[in-house]
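=== RUN LOG ===
request id: a7f3
mode: sequence -> structure
chains: 1
length: 59
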Amino acid sequence: MNKRELVKLLKQNGWVITPGSRHDLAVNPSRPGVKLTIPRHTEPNKYTIEGILKAAGLK
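=== RESULT ===
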């Protein structure tokens, strides 16, 4: 899974992606207090992607 697929999956599950300078911020109205950072400076490795999915409740 690459960054584009990750963002697509998050959007399908209700996450709103806000672009930033070095990271994108993802928030979900149904999960208050949970904010995810998605790196923009490099392609995230599989461990980073797994951590984001786990924090989003998708894994």
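=== NOTES ===
The mean pLDDT is 94.
The first helix runs from residue 3 to 12.
=== END ===
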